[in-house]
Structure formats: C-alpha cells, structure tokens
Amino acid sequence: MTVQTTRTTPRRIGVNLLWLVPGVVGGSEEYTTRLLRGLAEDPPPDLHLTLFALRSFAEAHPDLVAQYSTVTTRLDGHRKAERVATEATWLAREAGRRNIELLHHAGGVIPPGPAIGRIPAALTIHDLQPLAMPENFSSVKRRWLTTMLPRSAKRAAMVFTPSDPASASVVERLGVPEDHVRTVPHGIEPPRPVPADEVAAVRQRYRLGEQVILYPAITYPHKDHVTLVEAFGRLARSRPDLTLVLPGGAGPSEADVSAAIRASGAGEQVRRTGRIPWTDLAALYACATVVAVPSRFEGFGAPALESMAAGVPVVVADATALPWVVGDAGLKFRPGDVGQLVGELARVLDQPAVHDTLAAAGRVRAERFTWDRAAGDLAAGYRAAAAVGETGRA
After folding, report:
1. Rg of the chain over CA atoms, in angstroms?
2. Which residues are registered as beta bridge partners of 331?
3. What is the CATH number of the domain that holds 250?
C-alpha cells in the first residue's frame, strides 16, 4: 500500500540575482524586480523565497530586502569571470546551507560547476538574440552565450520567458519540451495622470513641437533607431512642428544613429535626452502623439506596453514579440521598411480618428498585462519546476 503525505512546509526557492547590477542590465532589472514585488504583495503560503544578490542590489532595492530573506555578497558584479566563479562557489555554498530546493537563475544562464549543478534549477531566458543575431555581440560574449544558453536550457527543470513568441523560440531553437517552458509576461501599473504643469515643463525643457514621435531605447543595433530616423526625415519635410524624441543611453550603434540624424535633414527637430528620470519619461509619454518601436528583436517590448497603458498609439515592427504584445491595438510595419513606417506614422499623425481609436484600444490591451497576473504565473512556474524532480531532465 502506498501512503501519500501532504507537504506542510513551504518549498524553499532561491533566486540568483548576482547578474543584476543595478542601472546596468536594463529592462531585465525592471522586469525581475517588479515580478518579485508582485509576488511579495500576495505571498504564496507554499513558497518561501530567498534572494542571493549583490550588495549594490540591496542598496538599490531596500524594499525587496525588507520583504524577502536576502543573502548578499560584496561582489560588485562588473567583472563577469569573478561573478561566474562566485556563483559556482559562494552561491552554491550559501544555497546549500539554506536547503534550497529550487534555484531560479533569472539572468539567462545557469552557471557552470559541479556544486551549483547539484541544485535543481529554473531559468529565465529573456530572449535568444545571441543565437539569432550573434553579430550584435562581442566575440567573447557571443562564445559564452552560444555555449551556455543551450546547455542551461537543457539543464533547467523549467524555462521562463517573457512572451509566447520567446517561449516558442526556446522550444524550436533549443529543443526544450513545451511542457518545460512557461511564459511569465511583463506587467504594468495603471499609470497615474501626469499633472499638466509637469507636462508643460517637460514640453518646454525639451523644446517639443506640437506633434511628438517618441522612442525610448538605448542605441543597440537591434533597436534599429536608424530606420526610424530615416522615416522621420521624410515626415519632417512637411511637418515643421513635428519632433522626434529619443531618450535612452548610448549603445554600440550610437555613431550610426548620430550619422543618420545628420543625414536626415531634420536634425534640428530631433531631441537626444540621454537617460532621464522616470518622471520625465512619463511626461514625455503624455506629450507623445505616437510611440514608434522599430526594434528588430524583442523578447517582450516594454515601451510598446508602456505607450498603450498611457493611451498613446503605437507603431511597431512586425518582429518577434512585438506583434504579440500589441495585438490589434497597434499598427505594424515590416522591419527595416522605411517607406511603410512613414505611411503608418502618417496615419496616426494626420488622422485623428485613427489616433483616437488606437489610443482607446491600447488602454484596453494594456489592462491584460498586470504584475499580479505575472507574479501568479511565476509562482505556478516554481511549483511546476519543483514537481519535475531533483534530477531535472536528462
């Protein structure tokens, strides 16, 4: 006779955040920290989370440290070799001391090493751009990721991604069974109305025209600012009150973007703000007539969701996860097709009915993406990963 027992103690889940250098890793920091906050707002009684993080993470996110058991290291995280060695030794040791039953590596790879390899693992893969567009990465990073991504996905009991297209790519490209991949999407808070005086101040500070095209993104190659700048150059010829605003830090394509702005003939109508506070970005969304997201590769595409939540029409490249995020609430164009992008942007700029219809549809679409839902998906993923068994998949 088989005797079944009911578990009475929470599962001990560890979250490896040693990769998360605050202010450096971009949107994955916002995604990961908001997921953890969402989970903390209604903590599942059957799960107990412990965070393993850099000291700088604890300083940047004290609310999470207050809500979760947290173990920190003095490592600054900027030197990858040192960080990987710490994951293989310090992390394995500290997780073992706390009897962690499942260790969630939220940064894209499971670190190598026999000690860390003995702990059952879940893995977040934000996207597979290193495999699809290896030319966008340095030779060292390319070799590391093309080796470690497939190996990590095979090793994990469960793989999480931020969108259904990203999940499908993990199944198709890495050969992971569908039942070992789960989508844990981004969420968004209902935006607070931006006071009129703040909107006016930002409009004056950045010298904005009557109509504004906004694209917040670091100048990485896959973000394809150049296609947008070329399209804007054509639109600006007959629209002197049109402004293109490009918030975000400088990336590897900075020189190409600057050259495209100079060649556009409309450089005086382009605003480069660099990195700006979220309060300024929220006001820019309030000023925007349309948000353009020409990126050729996204695991999710947070600016598209942010624009819909703010009630701003969005035009996105018909690539990877972006069509999945916007559904029928946004306009789409072929990646890199300047002429088609010009046409879709002009529809929003010149036709108030199109603008207003898209703005209303976007708000409705954005309501589907909540952090409560995402946190629930993550908790369910932890339970499923733990159920796979300590040996994972052979």
Report:
1. 22
2. 315
3. 3.40.50.2000
**Length of the chain (residues):** 394
Q: Residue 393: is its pLDDT beyond 60? A: no
Kindly state whether residues 207 and 90 are assigned to the same domain.
no
> Please, what's the largest Cα pairwise distance for the chain?
82
Q: Is residue 174 part of a domain?
A: yes
User: Total structural domains in the chain?
Assistant: 2
- For residues 291 and 360, membership in a common domain is answered with yes
Q: What is the mean pLDDT of the chain?
A: 93
Report strand pairing: 211-214 vs 242-247.
Answer: parallel
| Interior/surface letters 28-66, b for 16+ CB within 10 angstroms, e for the rest | bbebbbbbbbbbeeeebeebbbbbbbbebbbebbeebbe
- Domain residues for 78? 11-187+371-388
307 and 230 part of one domain: yes
CA 286 to chain centre: 22
- Helices vs. strands in the chain: H and E counts, helices first: 18, 13
Instruction: Answer yes or no: are the C-beta atoms of 341 and 316 closer than 8 Å.
Output: no
Specify the pLDDT at position 3.
45
- Has this prediction a pTM greater than 0.85? yes
DSSP assignment string, 196-242:
HHHHHHHHHHTT--SEEEE------GGG-HHHHHHHHHHHHTT-TTE
Same domain, 158 and 235: no
101 and 216, same structural domain? no
Kindly state the average pLDDT of the residues 334-357: 98
